[in-house]
Amino acid sequence: MKIYAALTCMAMVMNVCHPYNMNKMCESNGGMCTTKVTLSNRCSRLPYVCEFGRLCCRNESSRKTKRRGSGISVRRLCSKTDRECKNMGGICLAGDSKRCKLGIFEGFCKGSSCKCCIGEKKSCGILPECRLYGGFCIEIKHSKLCKGTVNDKLCDEAGCTCCFPDKKCKCGPSNEVRIIGGTELKTQNKYPWMVRLTMFQDKGTFQCGGTLINDRYVLTAAHCVHDESLSKYTKPRNLKITLADHDQSSTEDDIPGVTRDVAVAAVIPHKKYDDRKFEYDIALLKLKKPLDLLEYKEISAACLPRSASENFAGIKATVIGWGLTDYSDGSSSPDILNIVNVPILEPGCNGYIPDKFKVKEHMLCTGTRAGGKGACLGDSGGPLVVNEGGIYTLVGMPSVVYITGDQCGGPKTADLYTRVSSFLDWISERTRDAEYCS
């Protein structure tokens, strides 16, 4: 080691052997400068030099153990839980551990690679309603991490409480209005969770809507990413998601650094999706890179329903999209984002849907007797939202648009939507690597 250090110093320019520079080289390569005593049982040696005869090693808090019967040496990270982390109801694990799926906090565990994982105890199982609002389940109600509110009904074991930290990231905001019978949206980027989805398929380019629900997933309709002619799903490389757009035909209103296209890493459709009956018409699109939802007010996430039992019947909802404003004219797709307010019908859709089509529990409908208002082609997969005290909750996505004669939103017909509250478990399970806003 002394020879290596000497040769290294001779080969470098003046001042490179300064202790600060040597330590920095070790740390920038994922290591930590430590003593020989620590080396024997707490770290793996790296080929970098430290000051004063210290050695550079990785995973300072690791311990080498042997699997029974295998004779293979393995490294177990963060084998001890610090008291401060334990007192908050957590355990210390490696920051990249697959077990760290819920609340992850720094500064409460020893070792640079260790994080305090909250909500991982088996006795404190988390329900989707807690997690999808940025919370986690712990056994200690008065934890200092619970700077926001707590809710004892959102965890599946007695004695556990859903802890909402005091996060700055809030879901469902608005920044201040064609869809059939709707109005042009005057305020640019009023709905910062609205995204445009473009698919490049063999038969041309298609467009749908989508909703940003956390820092790295967009929720849309499965039929938007399904190529019926080929009976397969569109590959991620053939998808494009546009954020913070308003006038899709112009770049003059784009916000530099904000309005942009982002790449898709994975397409996650529901396995039960039926392209003939449009059942389970839901899909998640994973972004290649997570977004910083605190960076720009024009990009944020919508809230999801708090309970799987919510159907929002009788409530006025808002459909948002760039879909056709006149079905009789296939070129009537608007440049400006449009909205329209429609009432959500009772489960079963009050006879608005043809009898041959069975409305399932995971669907909901909107419609009016007079007609003239509703979603149309191009609005599929976009948001149907309910305004709850200024906070917008995503309740549905346009799935099947019934066309009467030459118009969408015809009289005595209803549009069929995927009911988001029916899929909270499904969404939660597949977005464990995402950060939700509270």
What does this structure look like?
The protein has helices spanning 2-11, 19-28, 36-42, 83-87, 128-131, 424-430; strands at 32-34, 44-49, 55-58, 63-66, 73-76, 90-94, 103-105, 114-118, 136-138, 150-151, 161-163, 183-184, 194-201, 204-212, 217-220, 226-227, 232-233, 239-243, 260-262, 264-269, 283-287, 316-321, 338-343, 363-366, 384-388, 391-400, 403-404, 407-408, 415-419. The chain has six helices and 29 strands. A hairpin with a 2-residue loop joins strand 25 (384-388) and strand 26 (391-400). It is mainly beta and 438 residues long. The strands form eight sheets. It has a seven-stranded antiparallel beta sheet with strand order 12-23-22-25-26-29-24, with no helix packed on it. It has a seven-stranded antiparallel beta sheet with strand order 19-18-13-14-15-21-20, with no helix packed on it. The protein has a three-stranded antiparallel beta sheet with strand order 1-3-2. Keywords: Disulfide bond, Glycoprotein, Hydrolase, Membrane, Protease, Serine protease, Signal, Transmembrane. Its EC number is 3.4.21.106.
